[in-house]
C-alpha cells in the first residue's frame, strides 16, 4: 500500500451528488436528546412560546431562524461549556453531528453569531428559561443526566454534574454549579450575553477592517 499525501494535485469538483456529501454517525447523546425532543413536540412548543415576539406568519421578508434551531444551538453551548455566540456558531458549523442535531443540511449554512444575537435580543429571559426547563426535565426523566439533583420549578430531579457520554470534558457547566438547574441556566445565559456584548463593543471601537 502506497503512502497517501495530504498535499497533492486535485481537480476542482464541478458538482457533487447527495450521496457524495459527507455523513456522520452522529453523537449518541445528541441523537437521543433529539429523539426525546421530537417525541415531546419540542419544536411546536417553542414556536408557540416565541410566536408573540415575531410578526404574523406570511409577513413579507425573510423568515427568521426557526426557534427550535436557535435553542438547540444554545443547548450545545450550555452542555459543552461554550461561553460565546461566536464559539457556538463555529462549533455547530464545524460539526456534522451537530448539523444533524440542528436539522441543517450540508447544502445550507448554519446560523452565524450575529443571527444568534438578534434572536437572543428579541426573546426575553423568561422564554429562554422555560425552554431550558423543558429540556432539563426531559433529559433528567429519561436518564440522560445522572447523579446529583436539578431543581426544575418545584420539582427536584435526579441529574448529574455532567451528561452521560458527554461530547466534551467541559460538558454541562450549569449542572456542575451545585445542581442549580434553572439558576445555572440563568447564570450561563448572563455570562454568555456579557461575553458577546463585550466583544461587540471592542469591534465597534476598532472600526471597520481596512480594505
TrEMBL record:
Descriptive protein name: Transposase InsH N-terminal domain-containing protein
Segments of skewed composition (Basic residues): 196-211
UniProt xrefs under InterPro entries: Transposase_InsH_N (IPR008490)
Organism encoding this protein: Pirellulimonas nuda
A family per Pfam: DUF772
Record region (Disordered): 161-211
PANTHER family linked: TRANSPOSASE INSH FOR INSERTION SEQUENCE ELEMENT IS5A-RELATED
Biased composition (Basic and acidic residues): 183-195
Domain Transposase InsH N-terminal: 25-122
Amino acid at each position: 500500500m502506497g503512502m497517501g499525501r495530504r498535499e497533492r494535485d486535485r481537480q476542482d469538483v464541478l458538482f457533487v451528488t447527495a450521496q457524495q456529501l459527507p455523513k456522520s454517525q452522529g453523537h449518541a447523546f445528541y441523537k437521543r436528546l433529539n429523539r426525546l425532543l421530537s417525541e415531546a413536540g419540542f419544536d411546536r412548543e417553542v414556536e408557540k412560546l416565541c410566536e408573540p415576539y415575531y410578526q404574523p406568519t406570511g409577513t413579507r421578508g425573510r423568515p427568521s431562524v426557526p426557534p427550535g434551531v436557535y435553542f438547540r444551538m444554545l443547548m450545545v453551548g450550555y452542555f459543552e461549556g461554550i461561553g460565546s455566540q461566536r464559539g457556538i456558531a463555529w462549533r455547530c458549523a464545524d460539526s456534522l453531528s451537530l448539523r444533524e442535531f440542528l436539522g441543517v443540511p450540508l447544502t445550507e449554512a448554519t446560523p452565524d453569531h450575529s443571527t444568534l444575537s438578534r434572536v437572543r435580543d428579541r426573546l426575553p429571559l423568561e422564554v429562554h428559561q422555560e425552554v431550558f426547563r423543558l429540556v432539563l426535565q426531559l433529559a433528567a426523566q429519561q436518564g440522560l443526566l445522572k447523579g446529583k439533583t436539578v431543581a426544575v420549578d418545584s420539582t427536584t430531579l435526579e441529574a448529574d454534574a455532567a451528561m452521560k457520554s458527554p461530547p466534551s470534558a467541559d460538558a454541562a457547566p450549569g449542572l456542575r454549579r451545585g445542581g442549580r438547574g434553572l439558576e445555572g441556566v440563568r447564570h450561563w445565559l448572563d455570562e454568555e450575553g456579557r461575553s458577546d456584548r463585550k466583544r461587540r463593543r471592542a469591534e465597534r471601537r476598532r472600526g471597520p477592517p481596512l480594505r
